[in-house]
Write a structure and sequence with these properties.
The complex is a heterodimer.
Chain A (H helix, E strand, L loop, with lengths): L12 E3 L5 E8 L5 E2 L9 E5 L3 E10 L17 E8 L3 E7 L12 E10 L5 E9 L4
Parallel strand pairs in A: 7-9
Antiparallel strand pairs in A: 1-2, 2-3, 2-4, 5-6, 5-8, 6-7, 8-9
Chain B lengths: L3 E12 L6 H16 L8 E5 L10 H4 L5 E4 L6 H14 L5 E9 L16 H5 L5 H16 L3 H15 L13 H6 L2 E3 L2 E2 L8 E10 H7 L4 E10 L11 E2 L7 H13 L8 E4 L4 H10 L8 H6 L16 H5 L3 H16 L14 E8 L3 E8 L1
Parallel strand pairs in B: 2-3, 2-4, 10-11
Antiparallel strand pairs in B: 1-7, 1-8, 4-7, 5-6, 8-12, 11-12
The chains are: A mainly beta, B alpha/beta.
Chain lengths: 137, 381
Amino acid sequence: MPDLVAPIAPHLFILDTDGAPVLLGGRDRETGRITFPAPVDEERFEIVPLPRTGRLWSWTVQRFRPKSPPYAGPESFEPYAVGYIQLGDVIIVEGRLTQIPFDDLRIDLPMRLVTETFVLATGETRTTYAFTRCSGR
Amino acid sequence: MSDVFIVGAGIHPFGRTPGRSGLQQGVYAVRAALAASGLAWRDIQFAFGGSDSAGNADTMVSELGLTGLQFINVANGCATGGSAMFGAYSTIKSGEFDLGIAIGFDKHPRGAFDPKPADWGLPDWYGDTGLMLTTQFFAMKIQRYMAAYGISRQTLAAVAEKAFANGALADHAWRREPVDAETILASQMVSDPLTKFMFCSPAEGAVALVFASEKRARTLGLSGVRLRAAAVRSRPAGSFEVFSPSLDVERGRSPTMLASQAAFDMAGVGPDEIAVAQLQDTEAGAEIMHIAENGFCGDGEQEAWIAEGRTRISGRLPVNTDGGCLACGEPIGASGLRQVYENYMQLRGAAGARQVPGDPRLGYSHVYGAPGVSAVAIVER
């Protein structure tokens, strides 16, 4: 089992039996529309696991340190990539992209969900979700 | 139902004015608009005004005069100015009053905006982990659009180059120096594919427009431009907006498409009749996409349009003739009215060095902002 530090927020993702993360969406019981993160309204929204792989729908690189608040990261800053990933025919989810050179980023790249350690300005760490390139192709 | 005329316009220069508050800039713009139309504050029956982060518009009455007029504050993000104008338009059209004013002003600190997740109905982790930046949204929207429709980085640079060239000709603009495409492309990357010179910056400024019914304008002996359409629309299902942790797979239309269609229907004119357009250019890519979203061309045609210089002041459809947000900066509450101010000047032939040739008859303006709101106005000489 991976050493899991506290998640950045509850109900964002779970770990399945292999220790792999699964994002949790909310399915509107009336319309069937799925959104992420799942709205906190169990009467209206059913929690559904989202597909773990998909394709890069769009991307950019955050080149400057965002203002705090709301950004909770440390003063020292390294640029990071963010993107939208289309997970099957279900939903397009935004997230940080990890362990992939910026120059390799291109639309339609196959991606998979992973966890990533996020360091807070206080030095504490949290687990968040991110996407990385599918290996073995 | 009366036709609505803009009979006066005033602007406080955009950019940075240390020592003058946003409200004071608003008062300056009101006085300029009144002076331009030969009216006094006591003549004004109603006002709509607002800012995003520079205070309550109605407190201006302590400077302008305690006349007891109806003064409604407007707060609608980037569409604050457009919404103030919509209020003035509807008020006169309905016959409730026949002489009023719309005011937009703002003053933002330097650097990117720093929104708070809770204000947008979002959980804290979204801001904590560095996803809550408008710059990321704009970059990812144009990134996908470029791949889908063959728009080049050179075209992004050409849009910014035109903005600074036009800004150099506009007295109210902030950036008054031309910047060439090579410098724009080589400047610091902010959020790929957009460089520093391709983004507008939060800034300061104020605009006031005086509105009158057709009858009242005639009685006062004021000429002006006719407001043919004013439409504000929010986002429909499947649109792609700022601060969206997820999107629907089934893509839909945008608030801009809805507002544009409504305005064209209201005015009874088509895109090919527009002689000058001011389109939201938060960054260079936004102008490119908004040319298509507002119905002026098909997706992807912008690459050829811009290479041919069609959107320059001398072109078939001059776009952002005062340099837009790229050259004027973006005081959120004032931007939408600046666009209408610019069209007012263009239609009256009063735009000086940046005047569009050929006596333009119809002007079009469009603002867009978070969390998915667009306002479109069409004015006619």
